[in-house]
Amino acid sequence: MSETEARRAGRPRKAVLNRERITEHALELVSDDGYESFTMQRLAKSLGVSPSALYNHVDSKNDLLQWIQELVMADIDTSVFDEADIKEALLQWATSYRNVFARHIPLIPVIAVLPVSDSPRTLGMYERVAEALSDYGMAESEVVPTIVALESFIFGSAMDTAAPHDIFDTRNHQDLTPHFTQAVAAQRRSKLNTSDDSFQHGLSALVTGLLAIRS
Amino acid sequence: MSETEARRAGRPRKAVLNRERITEHALELVSDDGYESFTMQRLAKSLGVSPSALYNHVDSKNDLLQWIQELVMADIDTSVFDEADIKEALLQWATSYRNVFARHIPLIPVIAVLPVSDSPRTLGMYERVAEALSDYGMAESEVVPTIVALESFIFGSAMDTAAPHDIFDTRNHQDLTPHFTQAVAAQRRSKLNTSDDSFQHGLSALVTGLLAIRS
DNA sequence: ACCTGAACACCGTTCAAGT
DNA sequence: ACCTGAACACCGTTCAAGT
Description:
The structure is a homodimer. The first copy, chain A, has helices spanning 3-8, 19-33, 40-47, 51-54, 61-73, 80-83, 86-102, 108-112, 120-136, 140-160, 178-190, 194-212. By secondary structure, the first copy, chain A, is mostly helical. The N and C termini of chain A lie far apart (71 Å). Chain A binds a DNA duplex through helix 4. Chains A, B: It holds the Pfam family TetR_N.
């Protein structure tokens, strides 16, 4: 007797909801339609249940966003720390980190306030980076500030990804902003994507600067 | 005849709402109770009008947040660019910038997507920084990436300000994260506030790194 | 244990009606 | 021109009732 037949016969169906199924459906909805249209009602509909059913498995929408975050963290590549030197590894890891959250910007405020102990994968990532920085010879007291600084830059840069391409359009104020207008024109001439260019430019400077602080 | 008497007499009162009054009331509400409880209904109540009345003056809540942003930008100190050398000026300006938006975190996603031409004060600030960087001798094509990188770090750091103090509590995973656990302990021993410490640490590295790129 | 349906307490926003 | 009051189209979440 199939599950559908059993349901038709009136037998109470077995639970169809669990963390895995909910999270995967949520991630699919988010990837397809973005976070603006991601609501508990739509998620419920896509799972074929009523919205209230979700609350037998998840405490709040914020909780669910944390589940998604934990899933998304798996996409960040930390394997470079085993292969490349510290500078190259930091550059590649940070780039991977930024690109992942550029696709999940609304998760950033959620993570920023989340104790790392609630996210095993985040904790594992921090451990890997901390180990690499210690091996490099960085002072113990500077490891956390270094990680936090990198993460702040990464999150800020991920958000910048959402900026419109003409964000620096100064057409109507050219006379009042001569230096900035010229700088915008010069950047446009030499590079395709301002956000990517600025990220790599800043990341290189930041990593170099952070690794230069030896005690 | 006072305005109140006129109203009592049934004469149509003159408009009580305008951008200035709305924005100032909004800023006061936000400063007192935070952004979570900042709603159009509450703002209307504090102004003594019905919620729908606001929409005769503002197109949307997002618009209103942009008005607040423009007001808040006035708090950022750019005067240092006239007094100190470029490095010191960038450090002080960035610190001022971060501290202002640490008190207005929910504005960050609004600004990040806002064309600068919609915010005169932001444009003015960019012009001042661009001028200083040009005077310093930075290549034209690197001025915008430098500003964007600094801003990304500033916004990310402002958000980090909202993190709980025990965000790095690894009590339950000490054995799995030896390096990170030790780094957290070391940082705690030497510094009071992780967020402030990390910001200054990263800012110093970033500014040094950005100014070192000479062509 | 897990689901449904109705309800609650909100949101931001629109709009006809008044002055 | 500007305001009110009612209404709309949503939210996230709770809870009694069912199986």
